Amino acid sequence: MAQNRDSILVVGSGVAGLSASMSLARQGYNCILVEKAGSLGGHAAGYTCKAINGKCQKCGACLVDDLLARFGDFPEIQVFLETRIDRIERKKKGFTASLNGKYGLKDINCGAILLATGFKPFDPNEKSNLCFSSIPNMITAVELEAMLRDKELPYRPSDGRQPETIAFVQCVGSRDPKRGHPYCSQVCCGYALRMAGRLRDLAPKTKITFFFMDIQTFGRSFSQRWASLQQDFIWINEIPGDYFVSDGDRVGVSVEVEDEIVDLSFDMMVLSVGMTPTDDQLTYQQMLDLSMSSEGFMLPDEDRGVFVVGSASGPMSIEKSITDAAGSATRVIAYMEGAR
Known about the structure:
Oligomer: single chain
Strand order of the largest sheet: 3-2-1-7-18
Low-confidence stretches: none
Structural class: alpha/beta
CATH superfamily of the largest domain: FAD/NAD(P)-binding domain
């Protein structure tokens, strides 16, 4: 495939990057897709189906598998895996990017750049009160996704036993101004509730508790579903302050209930971690002289050929990332047509 000023450089092969590349390829544009990891799909490639009793919960995991299945139909897309971009230089028309990876060093030319660098799940080790590395049966929602995709049933990391009681803690790393994350990550409530429903479907006797500030609605039928969700799970309108290992390697927390501090414990605890900017964002900001939002995500410079898509621009669901990618591809094409 020829690499020239009519080619488009797409950085990142998660949901948004794949979707945008395919949209551009359908319109006859050559795409150069650069991915630092060794496989396509980004975080979402590790997500599991959350169907309940065979009924789709619209979590979006199957959309990723569908994208990957269709991706090979587009010879217009050239993929560079395990590759980083060392330098991007603006030219009179377009850009020259220096690639460095398993294929060696290579300079490529392109007419526009689409940044689909995704997000980074919040690292719970940043919050010392969670004692994350010291509590064996406390895991993140990302780890639970991988666990269910691999084994189908949840298990305690400490002993492999199936948990009878599970607690979800919401807003871990989100809505936290002290850490520079004042925003709601938008997707955490949806994925946690769908995951809890899936867990109950797999093991109906599992008792599930939610610690929460409030619940972000999702889906058109949420108001109808909320009544049953309130009955299905135990709801505690508080985020615990203290976490510790309890008897039997259970996860203990201290919370205030009716003006009294009480200790509760669970076989396993799942932290609904938020979405944060990737470590790469600063690199591309400096390379391309981009501005950043108040939340630390990249802002596009579309008048000069730089587009930002999906969760690289802020927290976004799988479905919304696909929609955003289609819109961004349309604007990229308009820019390319105008630049000729």
